[in-house]
Amino acid sequence: MATFSRARELCERLGNPPEYLHVLFWLVTAAAIRGELVRANEMVVDLIALAEEHNDRAAVLNARRGHAGILLFLGALAESVEEGRRAIELFETSNEVEQLAARGAGQDAGAAVRAVLSWGLWLRGEVDEAVAQLAAALERANAVKHPHTQAYVLYYGAILHALRGEPSIAQSYAERCFSVVRFAPGKRLNYGRCREMSRRADIIHIYRRTKSPV
């Protein structure tokens, strides 16, 4: 957080250069990762307003999809789903340059927000749409051939299907995630997380088949 805060101070001293919104986005992300969800929510609301003021469509898109995730983890499911839908609409009405610029947040925004939305929908009992949104997320991830996006969506998919009581499908997603991150060029991505997800799905699958502890 100290590094991000220092970056923000430098941007403010330089008169809010183009990098400022990007720095603020990662400050929000860092707060969310640290579990400071209330603070992250306050920060991302301010970021959305600032990005709209600067007419930076990519920054607004990333801020809104980030907001959907934060609201999800705060348990504000209706608000999360609503914000996720806003982000999807914004993505679909953006041009290719804006969509590519939004990938600076780490994943393709169109795929990532649908993955997040799938969890919110499932938790609200909207099961069929949750699965449909996940399928659309995976289709987009595969279309852009972006390993980090593919791993992100597959990870969300593995958990969604585990929650649905479908361990064999969850394991398939986890193993595909594991494969993507293992062989992705230049980085290992979420290698350990996907491997652990695969192991847990395998245990659930064995338990359901044998009805005995592993």
Features:
214 residues, Serine Threonine Protein Phosphatase 5, Tetratricopeptide repeat, mainly alpha, disordered C terminus, 0% strand, 11 helices, 2 domains
Round the Cα radius of gyration to an integer and report it: 18 Å
- End-to-end separation in angstroms reads 41 Å
Q: Can you say what the CATH homologous superfamily of the largest domain is?
A: Tetratricopeptide repeat domain
The oligomeric status of these chains comes to single chain
Percent helix, as a range, is over 70%
Uncertain residue segments: 203-208, 210-214
Number of strands: 0
Count of DSSP-assigned helices: 11
The figure for the number of domains is: 2
CATH third-tier fold name of the largest domain: Serine Threonine Protein Phosphatase 5, Tetratricopeptide repeat
Describe this structure in words.
This protein is mostly helical. It has helices spanning 2-13, 19-33, 37-53, 57-74, 77-92, 96-102, 109-123, 127-144, 147-163, 167-183, 191-210. The protein folds into two domains: 1-145, Serine Threonine Protein Phosphatase 5, Tetratricopeptide repeat, CATH 1.25.40; 146-214. The longest helix is centred in the C-terminal third of the chain and has 20 residues, at 191-210. Residues 203-208 and 210-214 have low confidence and may be disordered. The chain is globular and about 55 Å long. 80% of the residues lie in helices and 0% in strands.
